[in-house]
Amino acid sequence: MSAIVFDLDGTLIDSAPDIRAAVNRTLEDEGHAALDLPTVISFIGHGLPRLVERAMGARGIPMDQHARLTEVTLAHYNAAANDLTRPYPGVMAMLERLREEGHRLGICTNKPEAPARKVLDQFGMAHLFDVVVGGDTLAARKPDPAPLHHAFAALGASSGLYVGDSEVDAETAQAAGIAFAFFTQGYCHVPHDTVHCLARFDHFDALAGLVAKGATAPDR
Ligand SMILES: O=C(O)COP(=O)(O)O
Ligand SMILES: [Mg+2]
């Protein structure tokens, strides 16, 4: 038995199109032009408040509107979190296999906890996870290691494997002293060879094999 914790956006699910739609609804409500998908993807990774801040910056909206527009965007997202979102190929089979092998699974995402739970539920994945830590579950969010420590503690493990798609996840794992497996098809914003990881993979069919080969050994 080991504990395996997953990032969500860009790792288990390709959620950027719905995130983009929510942000663009907010911008359009305010009379501003929409943002394209690559631009929105470049803003994903540090949580919703940061994403809204960057979208506002791109459109020259004064930051005194930030708290309000973050709430508005969250409401838009909660209303339509699964219209365009899809799990990456092989995700469901991989999660079920890891559970069958006796691993305990968790989520550590910077997405707010409520929509994270909702998305997992709508894809029929919620029952596979023993803990969901979102960007607003604790006072700190990734790359602070606290949310990842919290997830592993809830699983009754001090170590295991963290699986994510971005430099933020790699930094978080390193700060937490947890081994990191890097899914390369998500929303990473730096050259892939600069991402510190124990293993990298581009399809979830490969993950169970990595776990079996001992990718859950401590990273340092
Ligand atoms: O909400 C974000 O900015 C990123 O979410 P993630 O941590 O699941 O990639
Ligand atoms: Mg991610």
Automatic annotation (TrEMBL):
Species whose genome carries this gene: Seohaeicola saemankumensis
Family recorded in the similarity comment: Belongs to the HAD-like hydrolase superfamily. CbbY/CbbZ/Gph/YieH family.
Reactions catalysed, as given in the entry: 2-phosphoglycolate + H2O = glycolate + phosphate
Pathway terms, separated by semicolons: Organic acid metabolism; glycolate biosynthesis; glycolate from 2-phosphoglycolate: step 1/1
Protein name, as recorded: Phosphoglycolate phosphatase
Active site: D7 (nucleophile)
Reported cofactor(s): Mg(2+)
An example molecular function term from Gene Ontology annotations: phosphoglycolate phosphatase activity
EC identifiers of the protein: 3.1.3.18
EC class: hydrolase
One Pfam family from the record: HAD_2
InterPro entries: HAD-like_hydrolase_sf, HAD-like_sf, HAD-SF_hydro_IA, HAD_2, HAD_sf, PGP-like_dom2, PGPase_prok
